[in-house]
Write a structure and sequence with these properties.
Distance between the termini: 45 Å
Low-confidence stretches: none
Radius of gyration: 19 Å
Strand content: 15-25%
Bound molecules: erythose-4-phosphate
Number of helices: 11
Helix content: 55-70%
Strand order of the largest sheet: 1-2-3-4-5-6-7-8
Order of helices and strands: EHEHHEHEHEHEHHEHEHH
Largest sheet: 8 strands, parallel, barrel
Structural class: alpha/beta
Number of strands: 8
């Protein structure tokens, strides 16, 4: 399973990259807005920090505008993946961009039939938002399982990118369900390392070692 960081915070990305375990980055307009900086400037920073797919979302409402923006993003760096929304216009843009060899991450997916449409449009990644599905009282993880089953059945190459991850159990369940990628807030990435028995066990090892050396 690949781990992407779901952030445009340069400090978080540096720390994530230093771990050696981060395979890519996802952003969205809300994440970009939080930086308070021009989008292209942020993208130029991110590509220097993380060597892997970097999703950058289009801001146009129509397919023509999304394709234009997508081409601009793709021209910035070979690792850029264009992120397009799961709307009729977004999928038209997905089809056009993927037809030209540009990778597209289709975002804001909340149902398995939407994921089927995205795969048919040639998406490289589909982003089901599991946390937001849970928030409305439905089962985000079932969505991942359904998409995995459909993609397997028809041999679609579109990769499932579990998004809107809120805690380590989402990561565990996404991995069990066969998601190819999980995009994680930095805090969740850090939480993955933690286990109380690891902490206690290490303290005991160190204490025993120091006691023996006295
Ligand atoms: C995915 O690419 C999105 O940027 C993200 O995972 C959305 O997460 P949220 O529901 O926590 O905003």
């Amino acid at each position: 399973m690949k781990f992407f960081l779901d952030t445009a915070d340069v400090q978080e990305l540096r720390l994530g990259a230093a771990s050696g375990l981060i395979d890519g980055v996802t952003t969205n307009p809300s994440i970009m807005a939080k930086t308070g900086r021009p989008l292209k400037e942020v993208v130029q920073d991110i590509v220097k920090i993380v060597n892997g797919p970097i999703s950058v979302e289009t801001l146009s409402e129509d397919a023509e505008g999304m394709v234009r923006e997508g081409k601009e993003y793709a021209a910035m760096h070979p690792n850029i993946v264009v992120k397009a929304p799961l709307t009729p216009e977004g999928l038209k843009a997905t089809k056009a961009l993927s037809g030209e060899g540009i990778k597209v991450n289709v975002t804001l997916c909340f149902s398995a039939v939407q994921a089927l449409l995205a795969a048919k449009a040639g998406a490289t990644y589909i982003s089901p938002f599991i946390g937001r599905v849970d928030d409305v009282g439905l089962d985000g993880m079932q969505l991942i399982r359904d998409i995995a089953q459909i993609y397997k059945q028809y041999d679609f190459k579109t990769q499932i990118l579990a998004a809107s991850i809120r805690h380590p159990v989402h990561v565990l369940q996404s991995a069990l369900a066969g998601a190819h990628v999980g995009t994680l807030p930095f805090k969740v990435f850090q939480q993955l390392y933690s286990h109380p028995l690891t902490t206690i066990g290490l303290e005991k090892f160190m204490a025993d070692w120091k006691a023996a050396k006295k």
